[in-house]
């Protein structure tokens, strides 16, 4: 983090660069002045030990933040193992809705996006609306935290069908004609 525009110092403003590093407790670990009126501070905290902590932690409800704090403290106090830590964080992320539960993962693997089959147009439309709503929710979360994303390139419905584009022959079949197709016997 850069903190700029501090008190006046020899015709310029004081600046501080604060680096957050993983540590067993909250403490100021190092301070230096690499150049006049520019300070470098290293602050250790268990709150940044997880690789996604600065993205996820601020977005969590207070109760889940407190759970995460306790998990970090238990790890720092060696009350839990690294494996226990990972398990507790996984459960916390599942409770927050950031990870799927094992049951949800299994159902996704069995009938994942590639294996979706809809019996009716209505069920397909309903699933499309639900997925669109989820995409908008996720885009909102990304925007809220200043994480850039790109919108997918729009594709036509014929591109989604791939080689299953109806031909005149299949159109006749779809009309329900039980007779001969074209001039074939």
UniProtKB/TrEMBL annotation:
Residues 149-185 are annotated as: Disordered. Keywords: Disulfide bond, Signal, Transferase. One of its GO terms (molecular function) is transferase activity. GO terms for cellular component: Golgi apparatus. Pfam families: PRKCSH_1. The keyword Signal applies. Residues 56-158 form the DMAP1-binding domain. Transmembrane segments: none annotated. It comes from the Eukaryota. InterPro entries: DMAP1-bd (IPR010506), Gtb1-like (IPR039794), Man6P_isomerase_rcpt-bd_dom_sf (IPR009011), MRH_dom (IPR044865), PRKCSH (IPR036607). The keyword Magnesium does not apply. SMART domains: DMAP_binding. Residues 1-51 form the MRH domain. This is N-acetylglucosamine-1-phosphate transferase subunit gamma.
